[in-house]
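Budget justification, computational time. The allocation requested in the original proposal was used primarily to generate structure tokens for proteins on the priority list. As evidence of use, we reproduce two of the resulting records. The first is shown immediately below.
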Amino acid sequence: MDPDLHRKLLDANKSILANIARGAPLIETLTSIVNGIEALHHELSVAILLLDEQGKRLHLGAAPGLPPSYLRALDTAAIDRAAWADRPAADAALEQVDEGQFWQGFREMALQHGLHVRLAVPLYSATTRMLGILGAYSHTAEPASGLQRQSILDMTALASIAIERSADEARISRTEKSRHEDFTRMALAIDGSGTGIWDRNVATGEIHYSSGWKALFGYAEDEVTNRIEDSYTRVHPDELAYVQSTMQAHFEQQTESYAVEHRLRCKDGSYKWVSSRGKVVSRDSDGKPLRMIGTTTDITAMRALSERLQQSVDLITSLTNEVPGFVFQYRLLPNGHAYFSYASEGIRDT
């Protein structure tokens, strides 16, 4: 390869890799790939076409140098998957520059607009799933040269990486959007019930709280961070170790779910008793927790009532123990069975 051409190819590769690394929009990266090829081979015009998720139709990715009339005809063109069947990567590398593999109707469409397809290269994912096609065109019918083939093949590898990465990011974005919508629906459903929802990303250490959760403890929307280490600072010191050990036991799949009662500090510095329940809903292939969803319910009033009831029981018990003789409660059940449900200390003297 000519040294000057080789340097230009390396410079183009570096620029494209930089775009991929910084997460540039897919169309920007694909356009830079097309421009890079056309700058190396002025006689060529290049198009990158993307296959839809159903694998049935092509749509335009980037083709700045081709006639608009051709691009309009090309966009959403159906594709013959039999001619581009998924194949092992080794076979694809051998066959991808063979013009005879290109869809016949695609070539005929180009000829109608005065274009000859010099080269058509299928773009594959790392798992050999077809992603699209890179086509190189000219106004003459000469076949592609070895130099053109090699430089275009180098660029197709970068195009495949960019397309696959963009598709992965889109899937992640859709998943996150769906998760957020589910979280919002659940939060609205229990709003005002004295219960808040939390959603924890165990892998990143992030935890998100519903508006109801924040309001429960007197916080405004922007007054609670999304870091799990900050959440532990709100747990009463007397229960912190218990909360963390119970959470860890659930992470290690020793329990079906996470359930604790403990105190949480409010914005004004006071504490509320809460019942916190949750469950890991997503794990990786090694069983490590990825995502956990749970609820926090204010049980302060219930705890106070329970304590008052216990105090009443203790008082009654103390009084009956002072009564001469003994006080008892005898229960007769509908089935004829009977038992003493209570007897004062005086029974010891009878």
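The second record produced under the same allocation is shown here.
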Amino acid sequence: LADLWLRKEFVSRVSQENLKELLEAFVTDGILNDLEKESILEENQSRADRVRCFIDTVKKKGDKACRIMFTHLQKIDSTLYSSLHVSTFPSAQKGENLQEWSSSTQHYSTDDWREGKNNYPVTEESISKRVALLITNKTFNRYSTRHGAEKDDYKMHCMLAELGYDVVKYKNLTAKVIEEALQKFSKHPQLVHTDSVFVVIMSHGSLGAVCGTDCKPFKTENIYKLLNTENCPALHNKPKVIIIQACRGDEAGLVVLPDEDLAKTDAVVHKEKDFISLLSCTPNTVSYRDPSYGSFFIQYIVEVFNEFAHEDHIDELFRKVMQRFEESDFGGIQMPSKDRCTLTKNFYLLDY
């Protein structure tokens, strides 16, 4: 796929029917999930754009995924496969066993450099039992509607599902119900089996709080209290990743569209450990959102995780999100910030 000629020919000659068969094969193999397949088909208007999106998605899965794609293409349309001269390209060589991909290499669980005392333990079994909480508020009693929030919700759900998380999802909650949702999540029966959790809240906000749909504040401090070792021993020694898309003040920069339109064990252990948080902006500042595409923060998180989650640990992924802002046109007006990081080891998501 690195060869531009091959990419151009692939895009121009793969039919809509061929694409659908390739997507079905990839879902069957476990390389893509249903949300990824639907995203490729529904978020792109033309056949060519769908094929381009498919190619880009496969490239992010690595060389093995590329080779498997060619193997499937040969079975689906041998004439097209032969006319593309695929076998002359390095990425198409060394055919792979599809069962080997889906059963053992998908999560790189045997990589020695990711094992050991410096990394949080992750196994294929623990990945299959992952659980995450996603709360998205779009409409409010008195505050403006967060147009584009549905885009963030969809992208974040897809990303978490791709990483192996069963997503517990809520929309448009009051401040009180946000607290109740977190309390319920802290007692989720799957927590004892998961290797980690994500908690993602997207709403209007202020310093130290996010807004419920009733425009009352939910203090983000309560997230840490409800999921700490004292109140949620099932998550002891497990990474707890907190992502909050919300303003933390009303200091605006350039005119875009601001996201805020109104100003237990027997041993002795620390009760708050193994957390890491990424907030969409620094204290007292505004977080920006495009009404058509969603927030820049969620867009960059999804882009970075899709590209690097198979090789970088969570702290490095967050750093790359911040770097993406620095290199963009928005670096001068918005900068995410890591907060309350108490991870004692590296946490590799190991999604592929």
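A brief technical remark on that second record: Residues 87-113, 252-258, 260-266 have pLDDT under 50 and may be disordered.
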